[in-house]
Amino acid sequence: MTPLYEDNHIIIVDKRAGEIVQGDKTGDTPLSETIKQYLKEKYNKPGNVFCGVVHRIDRPVAGVVVFAKTSKALTRLNDMLRKGEIHKTYWALVEGHPEKEEDTLTDMLVSDGRINKTFVARQGATDAKKSILKYKTIARGDRYTLLEINLLTGRKHQIRAQLSNIGHPIKGDLKYGARRNNPDGGISLLARHIEFVHPVSKEPISVDAPIPAEFAKFLSD
170-202 burial, b if ≥16 CB within 10 A, otherwise e? Predict the structure, then answer.
């Protein structure tokens, strides 16, 4: 966990692949608790420290995540998230080369909580949700393509499911059809950029995650 931005109301960190944002059935220490400990030690705070989860990214995904340090900020950020006022950009290294340099993907997705996986729904599925993303190509290699992705909706595993559905799963994402795993157990999906208007000061906030070596190498080839 590396802090990328911090003020009195919010903290934005660079999450490592493998970390969980919020506690789950694994019992592993979530990022929210790591941040609480960080704040407690940094500011010598007695008792409980507030750290509100604004949004989550999947465990095998790295990149920017926003947390609230005050309940006022959490309430306002949650409202902004619902209204689509928090804009996130992802980078994904996918297998193969998509036919189109850029495209908008629109699918009806359904999630199966029993196996923690999302599928493109069959026609007529009653619990499916409309899911839209836009992608454009940043770079191409021999076997992989680096894409920039903007989500127009925020469904569970949306990027992973939609890219897999067009035949280009994310590198390392065995769950969604990748040929082999990544050495660190993560997948080659990065929450690269986030921007929004500060919920209290109303100043524009724009934060980028550092580019991991795998992506940097790809860009330099």
Answer: bbbbebbebeeebeeebbbbbbbbbebeebeee
Rounded to whole angstroms, the Cα distance separating 52 from 34 reads 12
Cα dihedral across residues 150, 152, 157, 159: positive or negative: negative
Summarize pLDDT for 81-115 with one digit per residue, the tens. Answer: 999 999 999 999 999 999 999 999 999 999 998 89
Beta bridge partners of residue 221, listed in sequence order: none
Pull the structure tokens for residue 141: 């290699």
Tell me how far CA of residue 214 lies from CA of 173, 184, 187, 189, in angstroms.
Answer: 15, 12, 11, 11
Show the tokens assigned to 174.
């065995």
Closest CA to 164 of 217, 219, 203, 109: 109
Report yes or no: 151 and 90 within 8 Å, Cβ to Cβ.
Answer: yes
- Beta strand spans in 43-182 (E): 52-53, 62-68, 87-95, 102-112, 117-120, 129-140, 144-151
Q: Would you call 104 helix, strand, or coil by DSSP?
A: strand
